[in-house]
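Quick start: read one record
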Amino acid sequence: MNSVVFSPPSVLVTGASGQVGQALLQAFDQAGFNVTGMSVSDMDITSEASVMAALSAVEPDFVVNTARFPDVDKAETEGDAARRLLVEGPINLAMGCKQTGATLIHLTSEYVFDGDNGPYKEDAATAPLNLFGHYCREAETEIEAILPQHIILRVGLVFSADPRRFIGKTLSSFRDGKVLRMVSDEVGTPTSAPDLARVITAQIRQLDLGSTAFGIYHYGGGGSASWFEMGELVYAQALQREDLPDDLLQPIRGVDVPARAPRPLDVRLDCDRLLQNFGIKRLPWRSQMIQIVDQIYRQSGE
């Protein structure tokens, strides 16, 4: 009896040194994928030649683009640099994938919405309030026009165990006795990087087996929160593990933060389409964050 042997997909991850990129590399390796991670020193996505050289060398079946401009506020003052990374880079990747036959999975932002009508479905009207969101939406439309085999994945407020990111920086500030003021009136859909990697892994498995469920999707952990509410959970977990003052976290309105780009007030994401087309369920963000805080303390020996 003949049996069909499936070879594992080859996946190239951009932005591999970031929190999402690192989570993807780990998840893809565990899934048995042939994975190649690239940071800007390996491939400059804003350079068409660099992209084509990388794609020709790796010959991936899938490209997952996690590279993004790192600061929403700086995008307002460094618009040219932001547009190169947020728009021109994805265009180069889409063109390269079109030439090589790869599928592009592009991670983008909930900031394509104005925050007046959350939770948002994928086909809801977009109306970005800041340049970061505007460039994200521009990239989405360009990818849709260039490459049929694409997944555009809008994700919420991402967190991870990366010490350079939200949880690690928050814990470090608490330990230094610094009072943190976090925005309390802007609500989104928190998403752990490992959970996001789980979702993308499941999508790639199904696409590799012949699914054609391309298009725009939303993903975030179950539930919603502001950055202040996320900070409250980190604080509560920290207070259970070490002796800290109990007055280090304060709420602030987004409009009261100096020199800050405008943000939408409610960018909760409706993720039902992902469940309907891929059968992927959401995991509660709170349990994910508690696990990550616990991981950080275990790794530090506390």
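The chain has a mean pLDDT of 96.
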